[in-house]
Amino acid sequence: MSQDQLDARRHEILSAARNCFARFGYGGATVRRLEEATGMSRGAIFHHFRDKEHLFLAVAEDDAASMAETVARNGLVQVMRELLERAGTGESEGDTAGWLGTQLEVAHRRRTDPAFAKRWAQRSAAIADATRERLQRQRDAGVLREDVPVEVLTQFLELAYDGLVLHLATGRPAGELARVLDVVEAAVRKP
């Protein structure tokens, strides 16, 4: 297999595993279920990932890296807007549900597995750093309010993001959440 084919297969495994972890949770995503979800044998899956733990970490890391890139480019509020739009239109519903499920599973494992929490702290720091750096650039450009420290604004946006993920992942209707995000964005900008 060429490197492009190996990369494509790895991507297929990550996508299918994301949905499997979202549907069944980490514990319920057995190797058999992962085989069914990916359409590949355990040998093919674990050729790319050492074990289920590393597969889950790869899914979560892939999501975190993608999110950190978007945050650095467009800000955390834009990540929330895109998530809300995908959830509202039903487009990429499987991807959105998988992504939301992965986020909840990461949160659960951070609370219940100290070793995982320690490993994950480094990965989640990248998103916080990207948010903080973006906010600092915005403040330097004169766009952000100056009466609140950037660190507090970062935590405020992270809290809004966590609330949105929980809201969508529990199946609650989007309702006026686009307008709520307008309020969130207005809260960090200069009046």
Kindly describe this structure.
The protein contains nine helices and no strands. It has 191 residues and is mostly helical. It has one domain (51-188): Orthogonal Bundle (Tetracycline Repressor, domain 2), CATH 1.10.357.10. It is elongated and about 55 Å long. The mean pLDDT is 86.
Topology at a glance:
Blueprint: H1 3-28, H2 31-38, H3 42-48, H4 52-74, H5 76-89, H6 93-112, H7 114-140, H8 150-169, H9 177-188
Helix pairs in contact: 1-2, 1-4, 1-6, 4-5, 4-7, 5-8, 5-9, 6-7, 6-8, 7-8
List descriptors.
191 residues, mainly alpha, Tetracycline Repressor, domain 2, 0% strand, elongated
Compact summary:
Helix 4 (52-74) packs parallel to helix 7, helix 5 packs parallel to helix 8 and helix 5 (76-89) runs antiparallel to helix 9. The protein is built from 9 helices and no strands. It has helices at residues 3-28, 31-38, 42-48, 52-74, 76-89, 93-112, 114-140, 150-169, 177-188.
Q: In CATH, what is the class?
A: Mainly Alpha
- Write the element-wise H/E pattern from the N-terminal end onward: HHHHHHHHH
Secondary-structure class:
mainly alpha
- In the predicted model, the low-confidence regions spanning at least 5 consecutive residues are none
> Quick one: biggest sheet?
none
CATH fold-level label: Tetracycline Repressor, domain 2
Share of helical residues: over 70%
Strand tally is: 0
Domains counted in the coordinates: how many? 1
What is the fourth-level CATH superfamily?
Tetracycline Repressor, domain 2
Q: Cα distance, first to last residue? A: 57 Å
Relative strand content = under 5%
CATH architecture: Orthogonal Bundle
- What oligomeric state best describes the polypeptide chains here? single chain
What integer value in Å does the Rg equal? 18 Å
Mean pLDDT metric: 86
- What is the global morphology? elongated
With helices defined by DSSP (H or I, 4 residues minimum), what is the helix count? 9
